Amino acid sequence: MRSKIFSEQSTLHRMKLAPAPFELIKSGKKTVELRLYDEKRKELRAGDIIEFTNTHTGETLTTMVLKLHIFGNFEELYRTLPLLNCGYTEENVTCATPHDMEKYYSPEQQKQYGVVGIELCLSENVTENSDL
């Protein structure tokens, strides 16, 4: 029940996700979502709720924002955050490069807005007694 899981001060945000990252978050393997730190993401706060929608199936997944990790670009983010929490796997983490994110966000967009790693937990892992 949402009223028991999330506080009254929480804001609901909706974002779309491709199937692969959606499933990684759903399984608990991905705990940091990488995005441009644009106007929409600047509204996020710890304790807010993000409802992700799988772009292929329409399935939704409810998460809570634990922390925002803000950087000037993905190079800084990749040097700082554990990439296994950002959607990479043991099989592909050695090939991970900040340029992977350029298929979503250009270097110009990164320079204009900066980037953010949104640390999340699944709503089923949050209770009304959480200190967030």
CATH topology: Archaeosine Trna-guanine Transglycosylase, Chain: A, domain 4
Order of helices and strands: HEHEEEHHE
Q: What is the percent of helical residues?
A: 10-25%
**Main CATH class:** Mainly Beta
CATH homologous superfamily title: Hypothetical protein
Second CATH tier, the architecture: Roll
Low-confidence stretches: 1-5, 127-132
- The number of distinct β-strands equals 5
Task: Report what the structure shows.
This protein has 132 residues and is α+β, with helices and mostly antiparallel strands. The protein has one domain: Archaeosine Trna-guanine Transglycosylase, Chain: A, domain 4. The protein contains 4 helices and 5 strands; from the N terminus they run H-E-H-E-E-E-H-H-E. It has helices at residues 2-5, 19-27, 74-80, 107-113; strands at 12-17, 32-36, 49-54, 60-71, 115-122. Strands 1-3-4-5-2 form a 5-stranded mixed sheet. Strand 3 and strand 4 form a beta hairpin. The longest helix is centred in the N-terminal third of the chain and has 9 residues, at 19-27. The radius of gyration is 15 Å and the shape is globular. The two termini are 18 Å apart. Residues 1-5 and 127-132 have low confidence and may be disordered.
